[in-house]
Design goal:
Belongs to the binding-protein-dependent transport system permease family. By secondary structure, the protein is of the alpha+beta class. It contains 15 helices and 13 strands. The two termini are about 55 Å apart.
Length: about 450
């Protein structure tokens, strides 16, 4: 019996050639791809130290190829570790990881952490006396103090300011010992609380009805909406004297979170329902076992697969931006964005369920002369319905979480309100929304898990 002929060991100097000669074609392709990727990444970043990793990868694969050509046991893991080291080193640098930043900048996160322990859940009925002081933003001339008297008297150190300017407020004739709230109102009527250290500025009239408070003028107008040069806008500083006149009740933030979470769940439910109705029939066109019989059906199969893959590759957030521009702000845009993405995601999952059915009933009906539609109706559908329902419920769970993010671009639901609270630094309201989202997601996760367990 003739001895087995092996390729020359010199092939090891080019591992791809050695792997190809030994019949490991996929390994040869992988070697070429990884080598080009490593060289490209290191050339992009330009660090000489990274070339050491590339050299280790090359020497490691040469040694592995030499061992294979010699009939010895392969030894590829040192080269793989070297390639991974290069990839992670480049990734570390690209992501600009700074392990000290969370500790150095912890103070910026403190207001959010404190707010999570003090969510805006309950409020007390109050009686309010409001005094308004007009403020021009920005100043068109030298700032002058401004005084307002309406039973109570308040004096602001400057009648004009711009964001970040220090202001001092003094008052007298206010109800003794009553807490005061300071609110800034922009030209379109949006209110935001005057904050200090991320929390509402504490102000209270003394026993004689006097108070004094210092603060910075807030940024009440988004960048890009400031008045043209040489012009100003009229803002108002509101002083609220607040008296408690009743027992606790749900806060406005809590009621709004409950309403918006209901809207969020509804958006996800409708998006999932419409997606199932569209994806279910399309999935049969993307199943190889049903569409592999002839050239036209194979073309339909590849077309549907390409459609699902392309649409799935686009993030729902991008669809959200597109539909907000198309149909306007609101829940409808968010529902459409989730629906389109869910059609592709569910279509892919449903088609894979169809491809893994038991072929026995299909072959039996086909042998009796049944049409393709009859085969699908009586042999395929009964097998896939439980899995379809399971994936649909799971997708609804996913869409509830996605709809929160869609709201950040104007797609309605709790995300839209949450983005406004974050912009206004309303940390306690943000904490209420986060708690509401977490509770709803946990409840839906439990429900969907139970439904899927019982069905499957």
């Amino acid at each position: 019996m003739a001895a087995e002929r092996r390729p020359p060991r010199g092939y090891a100097l080019l591992p791809a050639l050695a792997y190809q000669a030994l019949g490991h074609r996929s390994l040869a392709v992988i070697w070429v791809g990884v080598s080009l990727a490593l060289i490209g990444l290191v050339g992009w970043r330009g660090h000489p130290g990274l070339w050491l990793g590339v050299g280790t990868w090359g020497l490691g694969t040469i040694y592995d190829a030499w061992r294979r050509l010699s009939g010895r046991r392969p030894l590829l893991w040192p080269a793989v570790l070297a390639a991974l080291a290069v990839l992670y080193a480049v990734g570390w640098e690209v992501t600009e990881i700074d392990l000290r930043a969370p500790f150095v900048r912890f103070e910026k996160m403190r207001p959010y952490l404190v707010a999570l322990t003090q969510p805006d859940l309950l409020t007390y009925p109050t009686e309010r006396q409001v005094l308004r002081i007009p403020v021009e933003v920005p100043c068109r001339s030298a700032p002058q103090p401004v005084t307002v008297r309406e039973g109570m008297e308040a004096r602001l150190s400057a009648g004009c300011a711009q964001a970040g300017d220090p202001l001092t407020l003094e008052g007298e004739g206010f109800p003794p010992g009553v807490p005061l709230e300071l609110w800034w109102v922009n030209p379109i009527g949006e209110r935001q609380r005057i904050l200090q250290g991320g929390r509402p500025l504490p102000v209270q009239a003394d026993g004689t009805g006097r108070f004094r408070a210092a603060f910075l003028a807030p940024r009440a107008v988004p960048p890009g909406f400031e008045p043209p040069p040489g012009q100003s806008q009229t803002h108002f500083l509101e002083i609220h004297a607040v008296r408690v006149i009743g027992g606790p009740r749900p806060s406005e933030a809590l009621l709004e979170v409950a309403e918006k979470m209901g809207e969020t769940v509804a958006i996800a439910l409708l998006a999932t329902t419409f997606a199932v109705l569209i994806a279910a029939p399309l999935s049969f066109l993307a199943a190889r076992n049903l569409m592999g019989g002839s050239l036209p059906t194979r073309l339909i199969y590849y077309g549907m697969r390409a459609f699902f893959n392309i649409v799935r590759s686009v993030e729902p957030l991008i669809f959200g931006i597109v539909f907000v521009v198309w149909v306007g702000l609101g829940s409808f845009a968010g529902m459409l964005a989730l629906m389109v993405h869910s059609i592709a995601a569910l279509g892919k999952l449903f088609s894979e369920v169809v491809e893994h059915i038991d072929p026995g009933p299909v072959e039996a009906l086909t042998a009796t002369g049944a049409t393709r539609l009859q085969v699908i109706r009586y042999a395929v559908v009964p097998q896939v319905v439980p899995e379809f329902i399971s994936f649909a419920v799971y997708r609804w769970d996913i869409n509830v979480r996605m709809s929160t993010i869609i709201g950040f671009v104007g797609g309605g639901g709790i995300g839209f309100r949450l983005s406004e609270w974050i912009r206004l630094s309303a940390y306690r309201q943000v904490a209420t929304a986060v708690i509401g989202i977490a509770l709803v997601v946990m409840a839906l996760d439990f429900v969907s898990a139970q439904v899927r367990r019982r069905i499957v």
